[in-house]
Amino acid sequence: MPRHEARTKFVRRVAETRPGGFDTYLEDLLRIERALVDGHRGVAATMAYMNLISRYPRETEAIAAELGTTVLEPFNEEKIDEVLGDRLRL
After folding, report:
1. SS3 string of 56-86?
2. Cβ pair 32, 63 in contact under 8 A
3. How far apart are the first and last CA of the chain?
4. What does the domain layout of the chain look like in residue ranges?
5. Which helix (H) or strand (E) holds 1?
6. In angstroms, how far is CA 66 from the centroid of its own chain?
7. What pLDDT digit, counting tens, does each position of 23-62 carry?
8. Are 11 and 29 in contact (CB under 8 A)?
């Protein structure tokens, strides 16, 4: 993924200070950005996201603050009750 796809100043600044070529750290920061903006769908994507935010907690907080979002979505109690109700009817 090209460095110019960074959506935040934080990641752009990191990209400018890193050497050229493939950079796992920078790629992970870009994945965090993408997950915070586009969301993570499915179990595998959620687990990958949780792994990234546990590996880079400070970076994740900085990116989330700049994007104006939260790191983890709050629970939707109504949705949980709806799903549990559906399961109990089965």
Report:
1. CHHHHHHHHHHHCCCCCCCCCHHHHHHHHHH
2. yes
3. 45
4. 3-89
5. none
6. 13
7. 899 999 999 999 999 887 888 988 999 999 999 999 999 9
8. yes
